[in-house]
What we know:
The complex is a heterodimer. Chain A is an alpha+beta fold. Chain A has four domains: 5-81, Winged helix-like DNA-binding domain superfamily/Winged helix DNA-binding domain (Arc Repressor Mutant, subunit A), CATH 1.10.10; 90-133, no CATH class; 148-238, SH3 type barrels (Roll); 245-316, no CATH class. Chain A is 39% helix and 25% strand. In chain A, the strands form three sheets. In chain A, strands 8-7-6-5-9 form a five-stranded antiparallel sheet. In chain A, strand 6 and strand 7 form a beta hairpin. Chain A starts with a helix and ends with a helix. Chain B is α+β, with helices and mostly antiparallel strands. Chain B has helices at residues 11-27, 33-40, 44-53, 92-106, 113-130, 148-159, 256-260, 287-293, 303-318, 326-330, 361-369, and strands spanning 31-32, 69-71, 75-78, 140-143, 162-170, 175-189, 191-198, 203-208, 212-221, 245-250, 265-268, 274-279, 297-301. In chain B, the strands form three sheets. Chain B has a five-stranded antiparallel sheet with strand order 8-7-6-5-9. In chain B, strands 11-12-10-13 form a four-stranded antiparallel sheet. In chain B, a hairpin with a 1-residue loop joins strand 6 and strand 7. At the A-B interface, helix 1, helix 2, helix 4, helix 5 and helix 6 of A face helix 1, helix 2, helix 4, helix 5 and strand 4 of B. Strand 6 of chain A pairs parallel with strand 4 of chain B, so a sheet runs across the interface. Chain A: InterPro entries: CBASS_pafABC_assoc_protein, WCX_dom, WYL_dom.
Amino acid sequence: MAIAKAERLMNLALCLLGTRRPLSKRELRESIEAYLEASSDDSFNRMFERDKDDLRELGLVIETVENLDGEVGYLARRDSNRLPPITLDAEEAAALGLAAKVWQQARLAGAASGALQKLRAAGLPEDVDPYEAHGALEPRIPVHEAAFEPLMLACRDRRPVAFDYRKATAARPEPRLVEPWALECWRGHWYLAGWDRDRGAERVFRLSRITGKVRTRGGKYTAQVPDVVTVRETVASWAGDIADRSALIRLRSGSGYPLRAKAASVRELGDGWDELEIPYGHGLDAWLVEFGPDVVVLEPAELRADVVDRLRAVAKG
Amino acid sequence: MAGKPAKPTNALDQTRRMLSLVTYLRERPGARVEDVARAFGITEDELISDLDVLPLCGTSFRGGDLLDIDTDGDRIWWHNPDDVAEPLRIAADEATALLVAARAVSTLPGLREGDRQALLRATAKVEAASGEAAGASARLSVTFESEGGVFADVDRAISERRRLWIRYYSPSRDELTEREIDPIRLVSVGHTYVEAWCRRSEARRTFRLDRVAEIKILDEASAPPEVELRDLSEGLVQPAAEDPEVVVEVGPGGRWVAEYYPHDSAEELPDGGLRITLRAPDPASLRRLALRLGREGRIVSPVEVADSARQAAREALAAYDGPQGAGDAGDRPQDVPGTTRDGAPGAPLDGGGGAQRPDDGPHGVHDGLYGRQEQGL
């Protein structure tokens, strides 16, 4: 029966951590049962390279050292792999415990518990239930987009990526070549900021509009990565949250609470209508049309025309 | 426990866990299975399967030095503890996962101040201990939305087990209703929601905090019936099979509907649009969607919804036909494509979509649609 991969990885990790001198591939092969069972040199080599990569992915620092005979050896030095001293009190431990539970994405959920387990092993207090300590709060970070994981890795490793992207109003996706900078989750959706090579400019992409696979490309970044990437401001302005003008509307009494909540001023007209001054940002026309006959736009004329135009389209329906 | 994140069982996660486990066990001879499983956030079965693997692992390349770890099912013993088992550094992905989550949680406006301070202290310590590995964590960030004042009142009502009175906005009806609720828990998924037992409808409801117009903590004790907490990982709102079917046809500019509304199917149309079939407990609430879509789409069925949207648009237009109305608005040709703002100055980048996007995000739409939590009133 094939030996489980976790057992093989664990043996390799313990060998590399336990040794004081570099171990050659031959020595490792002879001391780990799963490698002894490898059917050929090739299959052993492949397995060994993959395992080393996996352990590095788990954070193990594995050094490659060449001895005088030119033979390559491997070891994981204790001092480069030891967690620096860290002391957390019970409250801090409970707070981290809560944070470690928020990811709904398998890889990050696994990594967060991995971090917490390392801290537990190093003495993190464990007698507090994080849910008890934090009352009824259950924050969750949703990740539904398939493009998330490859883009996260590409941002981490600074690798250019290619993907097909369908703009909100476009029928067909178009290929994009992007140097990814950062991912941000806002209002439950993930966005990518990066350098669009074909357009020679910074762009923000919504992950749910990426179609097909994200493929990594070789080579270095051509544009400098900014110190601070502000995905959120870009998306907020696009969502109409940032308004630099205001509009004047009439609103039927008792209706349109969200408009009232945003209004800078509300004046009762006394005939069953109120007059409101509201922020005028991106997308306001579409929003106002939702209220149908309960809203009349007074000014500016541009907004009034947009709303009338939309209403006519529906009226013709 | 409800709401617990899905736990992957892959070889990498298991290896990572076993490496920490040996360190942990060295410090705690005779540790209880139950306690260790809790400390590691795993089930006892998962722990036992780790304990089955560990005795097959060795600390030396010469072999023969296998970990002599065993358990009687209650306690765990390591008979030849080895100094290989030192606490390991935090890896880059681990630092990212924990730090990004911690920063996000620390921005929740409703978090108690003491807890926030503890979290900030812990975050700084983990950053320091992670060293370089913490660097990449700046490449991911998460913002939770929630309404500070409302959040604090709900949180207090839950911990003091008190009933709440709220005035709540229902977008599908464009109306405010008053009701008393017994809060059960707060959930943040993009927006923040309170799950509660609604005394008015005698049913479980979910309320989005930014739609709570007013809130008061009442003197009465909260007494929600025992309800099983749902696993919310699949989304807060699930359409039900018995809900009436709605068919929406959209052009390319209305494709966002498929992103915001859970649907049964979305067929591509030759013009680059979609034919979307979804379910809504109250199709009349889709009048808003029909109005918003304008020329970018229409409700195909039920036909009454399309009729009521058309009627509403005509009524609304009548208000513009007065002396100040027709003039400026009437001149605009019907087919000028300038009514969407994609090309407007300052319209953001490609990730941005255009004027078609609902103002308040997915749940805004979902709640209007599948607002059984908010409906039945």
